[in-house]
Every structure is written in C-alpha cells, then in structure tokens.
Design goal:
Blueprint (H helix, E strand, L loop, with lengths): L9 H9 L7 H10 L5 E4 L6 H15 L7 E5 L3 H14 L7 E4 L6 H8 L4 E4 L1 H9 L8 E6 L2 H6 L3 H10 L7 E6 L4 H9 L5 E4 L10 E7 L5 H12 L4 E4 L3 H13 L4 E4 L5 H13 L4 E4 L14 E4 L6 H8 L9 E7 L7 H8 L5 E3 L20 H10 L1 H42 L1 E6 L2 E7 L6 H12 L12 H14 L8 H11 L9 H32 L1
Parallel strand pairs: 1-6, 1-7, 2-4, 2-5, 3-4, 5-6, 8-13, 8-14, 9-11, 9-12, 10-11, 12-13
Antiparallel strand pairs: 15-16
Helix pairs in contact: 2-3, 3-4, 6-8, 13-14, 19-20
C-alpha cells in the first residue's frame, strides 16, 4: 500500500512525500487502516518496523479532520529520553505543514524549556513517565484534555519499573470512552495485557510476525577490524568492489558526515543524510540517489527510513547496529525483487558485542575473516595518514626522529626504575588499607542464610530501632550509651517545662534560691513573705563572703608554711 493512496489530509500527505515515505510497511498498513476509525489498538510488533509513523499519522489526520477534537492533545509515553527525542523529531517532520506544536518532556534536564513549551500550548506531548508525572503534579501539564494516549515500547517501560507510574498517569487522563488509546509492544507480557484490557475501550489486537529474510539471496561477509582502521578498510572495499550503488550505515550522525567527507577526499563521490539536514536538502538527496546522480550514501537507520532504492548492489555496516532487527532492515535493502545482493559488516572492539545477538536473530553465523593487509587502502583524507598502508610512510617519518628521542627514553626508563620501588610500596599500603576496611566492614555486617546458603550481606544495625541499637552497643562494649530523648511537640514541651519547674520548686517562674529561702524560713511550702527576695539575696551574699574568707585563709596558710 502506498501512503499517497490513503485518504489523508493534504498537508500530511505532502510531508510524507517529502520525507520519502512511499510504501507502507505491514504494521503501518494495518495500524493506520484500523486506527483512523478511532478504535483502540494493541499492536505487537518488533522495534524498527515503522510504528512511530503509524500512530503519528493517525493522530495528525484525526486532529485535522475531526471537529470534535479541536483543541485536544496527544500524550505519547516512551521509556527513554533518546526515544522521546526521536519521536519528537519524527513528529516535526510529518507535521511540518500542520498547525501543531510538538514538545518532548524527560528527566535529566531543567524544567524551564519544557515549561515554555507547555505555556506555548504544545499539543503533541512526548515524554517519559517520571517527568510527565512531575509536571502534572505541579500543575504545569494539564492532562484532562488528552484525546490520544500512546504507550510506545510498553514492554521496555515495564522492564524499567514504570508500571506504577503508568497506572497513575492513566488515572488522571480522560476515561477510555473519551480518548483513543494505542499500545505498542515487541513482546507479550502480563503487564501489557493488563493495561490493554483494563484501560482501553474494546481494543483491536494487531500482531505482526518478526521480519524474516531469505539470507541465501544475500552474500554476507564480516571483517574483524580495529576501530582506527575501519575507514581504510572501507576505502579498500569500495575500490575493489566498485559497486553500482551502496548505502553505508553508521550509528551516529557525526560518522555519516565524516565517512562521506573522507570518501570524497579520496575521489569517491558520496553524500550523507541525517535528521539535522533541512527537509528541502534531504528530499533533493533522496531524489538524486534514486535518479542515479550519485551512487553512494552514508546514512543512519532513522534517516534512511522510507528509502526504497531498486537494484541496490551493496550495503556496508560501518557500525554494527545496537538493535538486532535493524541489521535485517539494513541488509534487506539489497536483494530486492529476487535480485542478488551483498552485505559487508565491520566488527570492531567497540561493537563486536552486538554480533552474538545478531547471529542468533538471523539464525546463522556470518562468515567472518581478518582483513588482509592488501585490502587496506591509502587514505588521502585529513587525519587518515595513520590508516592502511599509509602507516609505512609514517613509520619512515618517525624513524628520522628516533635518535632524538633515545636519550629521553633512557631518562624515562631510569625514572621508572627508581620510582618502581616507591610505587610498589604505596600499592602494598593501599592493599593493606583496603583489606583492613573489608575486615572492618565484615564485622558490621551479617548474612541472611537460607538452607545453609549465604544469600546476601545485610547491614544488621540498619534494621534496628534506636532502642535496639543502644541495647546492642551496651551489650557489645559493656558501657552505658547515651540514649536520645524523643522530640516533643509544642504543647508537650510546654507541659514538660512546667513539670520541671514544679519538681525543682520553681512554680510561678521564680528563681530556685527564692523558693529555697522561703521554704527554709517558714518550714512549709506556703508562699513566702514580701521580704523573701531581699532575705534570699542577703543569705546568698553572706555565703559568698564566707567562701572568699575561706580561700584567703587557705592562701595565707600556704605562704606561712613556706616561710617556716
């Protein structure tokens, strides 16, 4: 099915055409067909199968054509900030001719820019559960006017522990009968099914089998190559194969530009395409590639989405994809319509870890070999002199400077020998301190045991109350330990102060010596006479005088003894 054959808003069809969307993928065809009627959907399909464009087309078309949805909004929940940015970029591409503002809302950054988007009345809201809940709780994001709720990659959100947050969010948006809900998941699990059944309105279930590919029609090769030699190997392969057309896949926008620039510096015309390019430039590149005006293109997975090039001779995976399904999408762009194709992949020390999952996914081992020296080509581009056979020239240039560095090297070696003993001594001291630390920590920890097996260390004191800890310290160290008194509230503190005054004879707020003088004179606890304060001061003054006389007598006796 072609996108232009769908009965969509003209502004939306124009944006789809300029973005290079021609033929709809299976999940897009089914989702758009059923979703344009406003039905709730639960779609089970692998990552990278075009789900984002499918639900965005539904949202944009219905907002444009349904008068009842005027002023309503769409909330698209995703598990990570990277995916939020990706969905936001896709929405801006497809909605470039539509009167809707799109914004992404995720944690790890400040609130100010996101608050500006909300005050500007953004209608397409893409976010992660935590940040959306924060903005809603603070009153910045109003979720009561949501007409579309999309949970993209719901299974990943549940794996990351977002299930409680999602349930909270669903409770603050309009009920199922007042919104359209679409859930997308790569795997079927109980959490997704629970949301699909509990928080949707009679959803239709769409299940698309994972993409399969007849690998016999594609010649696959894998080269193990150091990351700093990848471009020299790519250059050598392009010079040897001389393919009629090729796409070179990189994982980042920066590498697509770098690879294209360095190929051009070596006399191989290559363009690059990324999401940062203006739409007009991007459309022109796609049309020129299809028309054969240039033969080679460096692209990322996102930028190459929607490209359908007939008779593509070669696909090069300059970087192995992080998503295993993307490997199939990449090499599947060759060998179209029963034709033969070739796919060459580079596995460096940085991305070789993806190889096992890719081979498990396609169900076979990719023939691999180490690149021979004669397969590396001289690189004339800037910064490429150290790659391929150009390393021989560098070795010759370095040889001229070798003699000048020998004396410096001997001095460094001497310094290493003298410093080695000091470093070894310091290393032993650090190891001893670490061991003492481990032993000390071991005395403070206990282990949970189940059937005689230690499960995990648990800090025993952390599980105790204050009273239990004090009792433990007293038993262990044999001394009384200070016990903090509980903090009292305002009325309780006031009552305690009154009790202390009564206990010390300080009722009425009078000083303790006044109460003492009154009691001693009268012999009872009756109120003192009016002269009691002066009597008390006299008594105090007299006691002070006697104390001073005693001190002077002691000093005089000391000096008289010394004279004798």
């Amino acid at each position: 099915m072609e996108f232009q054959s769908l009965e969509l808003a003209e502004e939306l069809k124009k944006a789809l055409f300029e973005a290079g969307y021609v033929n709809a993928m299976p999940v897009q065809e089914k989702t758009i067909e059923l979703g344009l009627d406003g039905r709730d959907l639960y779609v089970q399909s692998q990552t990278g199968t075009g789900k984002t464009a499918a639900f965005l087309i539904i949202i944009f078309h219905r907002l444009m054509t349904d008068p009842a949805l005027k002023g309503r909004k769409a909330l698209i929940m995703v598990p990570t900030r990277e995916l939020a940015v990706q969905v936001e970029e896709e929405a801006k591409v497809l909605g470039r001719y539509l009167p809707f503002k799109t914004g992404s809302f995720y944690g790890g950054v400040g609130y100010s820019e996101q608050q500006k988007l909300l005050r500007a009345d953004a209608q397409i809201l893409v976010g992660t559960p935590g940040r959306v809940l924060d903005l809603n709780s603070s009153g910045e994001m109003n979720l009561m006017d949501i007409a579309f709720l999309v949970l993209d990659e719901a299974d990943r959100m549940f794996d990351m522990g977002f299930y409680p947050d999602l349930r909270k969010l669903i409770k603050v948006v309009p009920p199922p009968e007042r919104r359209q809900t679409m859930l997308f998941s790569a795997t079927l699990n109980v959490y997704v099914k629970n949301l699909a059944l509990e928080y949707t309105n009679n959803p239709l279930e769409i299940e698309i089998a994972p993409d399969t590919i007849t690998v016999e029609e594609i010649d696959q090769f894998l080269y193990h190559v150091p990351s700093d030699k990848k471009f020299a190997l790519l250059l050598g392969i392009m010079q040897r194969e001389k393919p009629e057309s090729a796409i070179i896949f990189c994982n980042t926008k920066r590498y697509t530009e770098t690879v294209a620039r360095r190929l051009r510096a070596n006399g191989i015309m290559c363009e690059f395409i990324s999401g940062d390019l203006p739409q007009k430039k991007r459309l022109t590149l796609i049309e020129d590639l299809k028309a054969g005006k240039y033969r080679y293109l460096a692209a990322t997975d996102v930028a190459a989405r929607g490209l359908d090039i007939e008779a593509l001779a070669l696909v090069v995976n300059y970087d192995l994809p992080a998503e295993t399904e993307n490997y199939v999408h990449r090499i599947g762009r060759t060998a179209r319509a029963g034709a033969n194709g070739k796919a060459i992949s580079f596995a460096s020390e940085q991305d070789v870890y993806e190889l096992t999952d890719i081979e498990r996914y396609i169900g076979k081992k990719i023939p691999a070999e180490i690149a021979r020296d004669d397969l590396y080509a001289d690189d004339a581009s800037r910064g490429g002199q150290n790659e391929g056979r150009g390393r021989d020239r560098d070795r010759q240039n370095r040889g001229e400077r070798t003699g000048c560095r020998q004396e410096s090297d001997r001095r460094k070696e001497s310094g290493r020998q003298h410093g080695g003993a000091r470093q070894e001594h310091a290393r032993q001291q650090r190891n001893t301190q670490r061991e003492h630390g481990r032993q000390e920590r071991g005395t403070r920890q206990e282990y949970l045991e189940q059937d005689g097996v230690r499960i995990a260390p648990v800090n025993m004191l952390a599980k105790m109350s204050i009273e239990e800890r004090m009792a433990y310290y007293e038993q262990k160290y044999g001394t009384k330990v200070w016990k903090p008194e509980p903090r009292l509230g305002g009325s309780a503190r006031t009552e305690k102060k009154k009790n202390n005054r009564r206990k010390n004879g300080r009722s009425g707020g009078r000083p303790p010596h006044a109460a003492a003088a009154s009691t001693s004179r009268s012999g009872t606890g009756s109120p003192p006479a009016a002269s009691a304060p002066s009597t008390s001061r006299s008594a105090t003054k007299g006691a002070g005088t006697q104390t001073k006389k005693g001190v002077f007598a002691h000093i005089a006796a000391f000096f008289s003894k010394d004279k004798s």
